[in-house]
Amino acid sequence: MVRRRRCAHRLSCTGAVRVMLRAFKNVVGTIAGVLLLFAGVTAVGDFLIDWANPPIGQFIDTSSGRQHVLDVGPEDKPAQPTPAIVLVHGANSNLGDMRLALVARLRSRNRVIAIDRPGHGWSERAGGAADAAPRRQAAVVREVLSKLGVTRPVLLGHSWAGALAAAYALDYPGELHGLVLLAPATHPWATGVPWHFGLAGTPWLGPLFARTLAQPLGYLMLDRFVGPAFAPQGAPPDYVERASISLALRPATVMANGEDLNRLEAFVAAQATRYELIKTRTVVITGTADGIVSPRIHARAIAAQIPAAQLVVLQGIGHMPHHADTARVVAAIEALAAADQDAAAAPRATHRP
Q1: Which has more pLDDT, 153 or 197?
Q2: 112 within 8 A of 103, measured Cβ to Cβ
Q3: Is the pLDDT at 33 greater than 70, yes or no?
Q4: Sign of the alpha-carbon dihedral angle for 23, 27, 30, 33
Q5: Is residue 145 part of a domain?
Q6: In this predicted structure, what is the pLDDT of residue 215?
Q7: Can you give the pTM of this predicted structure?
Q8: Domain range for residue 85?
Q9: Does residue 4 surpass a pLDDT of 70?
Q10: N or C terminus: fewer CB in 10 A for the chain?
């Protein structure tokens, strides 16, 4: 009798295990099916994004593959030679952002070069995650400029690219006419990066996330991403389309952006100890209402460290000063481009328009 009960109990347990395994297989199959569906949607979306946002510049071969570059101007031949102005975009972006805000305003007097950073826009990223460091990307920018025959330009870096521009000034002293740090990310901060960017930059889950969920979620949340970047101002009309922001939703770009952001804080923590060594005449531009990159932690700190820095503080302006107050940003860039670098370093100044 006892043996029969044990057998019945054993059969009951075996049946329960089989039911659980069957349910588990069904769940796994459903998840796999959903991921395959999203992977298919992403593959189609990738093609459509490329089709809708073709390259607008030329390609330059570098050690990180082909880099996409817009090279224009000057329209009016200046009486005296003027330095080229090189514009480098931040995270989740491409050279279309700089083209939309600054290129047309600067090209009349200067040669203007806007660059897609490695892995962004239409630029390749041959080194993968190894090309995520701002120092490495600064070296690639230098390769591009060398191929274009550009010497001693004014280099502008926005947001993430503020660390890149500072790295360029540190690693290649004497090669810049001037340095513009626009709402720059230059120092370590305490809040980390949003979970989706962190996930996209991880070695194993990053590719899975980027090739399945990132693009559909990105389309659903694109306005939520763009809005805070421009707050308290609004984005220009049709900004996402005109600046080709959807290029950031392609899987390879999603992973590149995640790698960039995941590695930025450790990089700037080390680099921030050396900013006093920058001798290039520098303009740091920040908005008091920047909710993305703290002016106190970044812009004000690096302006205090660089001996020849001028801090320009724009009252009530957010993280996109080149869109929100284009005239004053252009004026600061042009003044720096026109400055005589043979003169003594400019006195430290703080300007609050």
Answers
A1: 153
A2: yes
A3: no
A4: negative
A5: yes
A6: 85
A7: 0.87
A8: 52-351
A9: no
A10: N
What's the structural domain count of the chain? 1
For 284, residues 6+ apart whose C-beta sits below 8 A from its C-beta are 180, 181, 184, 299, 302, 303, 306, 309, 310, 311, 312
CA distances from 115 to 93, 112, 224, 293, 315 (A): 11, 10, 26, 22, 29
pLDDT interval class at 11 (50, 70, 90):
very low
d(CA 144, CA 153): 12
Tell whether 202 is covered by a domain: yes
Return phi, psi of residue 155, to 5°: -110, 120
Long-range contacts of 198-204, Cβ-Cβ distance < 8 Å, separation of 24 or more: 198/258, 198/261, 198/262, 199/258, 200/254, 200/255, 200/257, 200/258, 200/259, 201/129, 201/132, 201/255, 201/257, 201/258, 201/259, 201/260, 201/261, 201/262, 201/263, 202/258, 202/262, 203/129
Report the CATH number at residue 167: 3.40.50.1820
Q: For position 346, what pLDDT does the model report?
A: 45
Q: Left if phi > 0, otherwise alpha if psi is -120 to 50, otherwise beta: which for 287?
A: beta
